[in-house]
Write a structure and sequence with these properties.
Layout: H1 2-18, H2 20-30, H3 40-48, H4 55-64, H5 68-71, H6 90-102, H7 109-117, H8 123-134, H9 151-155, H10 167-170, H11 189-201, H12 211-216, H13 221-231
Helix pairs in contact: 1-7, 2-7, 4-8, 6-7, 6-8, 11-13
Length: 233
């Protein structure tokens, strides 16, 4: 059974790493007008059907699928190119894997690699991986710098520009909220900035009910950089 799983994963992995054409095909799929985006109702139904994850099985997949080569030994990225997965909410990780597989998430060349790799996973695999990462320690700490330039946006937002405070969904320290609201603490600043700009320009649009897109579209480059620094290590 394990050998069969390794074969399922190794084929898309090899394609992702060596054949750019596969990534381009995945990108085309991502822009397919037939892709159905989440509504609160459809995502709630998917959440209710989420299998119970097995962290031990997820750890085996993490090793066998070479996830560590980008995301670190236990999900803590060692580069600025990839996000930390350690301590991430299982529901969020599960959703991202589904979105890559179904073509909802396709914002850049890194997403192209993920789209190709996850084709070998089923829903149980995704839940297992999500459970493994959720069982790890979230990077960073709970200390809040109230003097940081971004603290006002985090804790109060900007009502005049219809900017909701980050803490409303992610917590003041970035520990994450409920369901798909992720932990955002301890990620590389470059990754955070790239993600926020992707939401702002619409290249990433897999958020339920456009919650993040509507938030990010009002932010300046300087505000995004300040938030990235606030939530970084």
């Amino acid at each position: 059974m394990l050998n069969h799983k390794l074969f399922k994963l190794s084929v898309p992995l090899a394609a992702a790493l060596s054949l750019g054409v596969c990534a381009n095909l995945a990108l085309a799929k991502g822009h397919d007008p037939e892709i159905v985006h989440w509504t609160p109702q459809s995502w709630s139904a998917e959440m209710n059907a989420m299998p119970k994850g097995d962290p031990a099985a997820g750890e085996r997949l993490h090793v066998n699928a070479f996830c560590a080569s980008c995301h670190g030994t236990a999900g803590e990225s060692m580069t600025h190119n990839w996000p930390n997965l350690a301590g991430q909410r299982a529901e969020y990780t599960y959703k991202q894997l589904i979105d890559y597989q179904d073509g909802r998430r396709h914002e850049d060349e890194r997403a192209m690699v993920m789209i190709t790799i996850v084709q070998g996973l089923d829903r149980q695999d995704m839940a297992d991986l999500a459970a493994f990462y959720a069982a790890q320690e979230l990077p960073g700490n709970d200390e809040v710098d109230k003097n940081h330039p971004a603290h006002s946006l985090v804790s109060v937002g900007d009502p005049q520009r219809l900017i909701t405070p980050c803490a409303a969904c992610h917590g003041v320290a970035g520990n994450g909220g409920i369901n798909e609201s992720p932990a955002i603490r301890g990620n590389p600043e470059d990754y955070f900035i790239r993600t926020m700009k992707a939401y702002r320009d619409g290249s990433r649009n897999n958020d339920v009910a456009k919650g993040m897109s509507q938030f990010a579209e009002h932010l300046t480059d300087e505000e995004i950089k300040a938030l990235a620094n606030y939530y970084a290590y």
